[in-house]
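Have a think about this chain, C-alpha cells included, and walk me through the fold.
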Amino acid sequence: MTNASALYDVPGPRTRQRHRRYGVLAAAVILGLIAWILYLLFDTGQFTYTKWMPFEYKGIQELLLRGLGNTLRAFGIAAALSLALGGLLAVGRLSDHRPVRWLATLVVEFFRAMPVLVMIFFVFVALKVQPLPALVTGLTLYNGSVLAEVFRSGVNAVERGQREAAFALGMRKTQVMAHVLVPQAVRAMLPAIISQLVVALKDTSLGFLITYEEFLHAGKLIASNLDYDLPFIPVVMVISPIYIGMCMLLSWFAGWVSRREQRSPKTEAVAVATAEPGTLLPGGEPPTAPRP
C-alpha cells in the first residue's frame, strides 16, 4: 500500500524504476553533450598554452580587474538611480490626480518599449555625452520604467482590506503607502526587483559598443590579439563564470534580505497568552453570580 498525498499520489515501485531510467538516460545525454563540446574545444586547439598565456601577464590581469571595476561602477550607479526612478514613476502611476497618472504612464510605456541600445546610442551620439553617463542613462531609463511597473503591481497586490482598514483609522494616503502597503509589498516584489537588477548588470556589457572600458570591452581587447592566436574561447571561459558569479551573488543577497525581513521583530507574530478561567480584563471585576 502506498501513502497518498494531498497533492499527488506517491509513485509506486514501477513508476520509481521508470523515473530512475529517465534520470540515467538524461544524465547520459548531458554527459555526452559535455564530452562532445570538450572534444570540439580540444580539436580546435582552444586549450593550447598560446591561447591561455595572456592571463599570466600582470598587464592583462590589471586590464581585466579595471574592466570589472568599471562594470561594477556602472551597475551600482544605474541600480541606485533605477530604483529611485522606479519608485518615483510608481508613485505617479498610483496618483489620484489624472494628469500625473497619465504623464507617468506615458513615460513608463515609452522607455519600457524603447530598446536599451537605442537609448544608449542616442545619449552618446546625439547628446554627445561621455560613455559612462550615456550607459548609465540608458540603463536607468529602461530598468527604472520596468521597476515602476513592478512596484505598482506589488502595491496593488496587497489585499484591499488592508488599505480600507488604514483609511478607516484616519490615516492619510502617504501614511497608508509608507506604513501599510509598501512594507507588505516589498517581500512579494523582492524576487522581481533582483531579477531586474540582474538584467541591468548584464546590460552593462553594452558599454563596449560606445567604447566604455568595462569587463566585456577588456575581454574583447584580449580576444582580438593576434599575438596570442585570437584567444576568444579562453576569454569567454574566464569572463562568463565571473558574470554568473555576480548574478548568483545578487540572488543570494536577495534571499538573505528576505530571511532577515522574516526574522524582523516588526513582521514576527506576537505570542498571545492563552486565556484562563478568572482572568480579569483591565479595570474589570471578577464575575459574580446574580443574587436571588
